[in-house]
Automatic annotation (TrEMBL):
Gene that encodes it: hypA
Organism: Cycloclasticus zancles 78-ME
Alphabetical UniProt keywords: Metal-binding, Nickel, Zinc
A Pfam family that the UniProt record links to this protein: HypA
Entry function: Involved in the maturation of [NiFe] hydrogenases. Required for nickel insertion into the metal center of the hydrogenase.
Identification of the protein by name: Hydrogenase maturation factor HypA
Binding site for Zn(2+): 73, 76, 89, 92
InterPro entries: HypA/HybF
Lineage: Bacteria, Pseudomonadati, Pseudomonadota, Gammaproteobacteria, Thiotrichales
Length: 113
């Protein structure tokens, strides 16, 4: 389950932030997941409490926002939103979409005490 290693990455971002911003506990973590990232929100929720235990984010609630991906069609040049990989261009039906975003996961917001 690669969600656990993603969450460990999230935790290190939170801890770095806690150091620089000087807070000691996090109330809420909001994660943004690209629709093409293959991250399972359920797996994230499942792993969150385990990974955050005994950290500054112990007991924090988790909010997950899924963002559609953005792609540019290499055939006709149109920009389109994509919700899964291997979708055709809505204009010309070409499969040569150049994915611009949607593969990543990032920390969108932290609510601290
Ligand atoms: Zn196209």
């Amino acid at each position: 389950m690669h969600e656990l290693s993603l969450l460990e990455g999230v935790l290190s971002i939170i801890e770095d932030n806690a150091d620089t911003q000087g807070y000691t506990s996090v109330k809420k973590v909001c994660l943004e997941i690209g629709a093409l990232s293959c991250v399972e929100p359920e797996a994230l929720r499942f792993g969150f409490d385990i990974v955050m235990k005994n950290s500054v984010a112990d007991g924090a609630t988790l909010d997950i926002v899924t963002m559609p991906g953005q792609a540019i069609c290499q055939q006709c040049g149109c920009e389109t939103k994509v919700f899964e990989l291997h979708t055709p261009c809505p204009d010309c039906q070409s499969f040569s979409l150049d994915i611009q975003s949607g593969l990543e996961m990032r920390v969108r917001d932290l609510i601290v005490n």
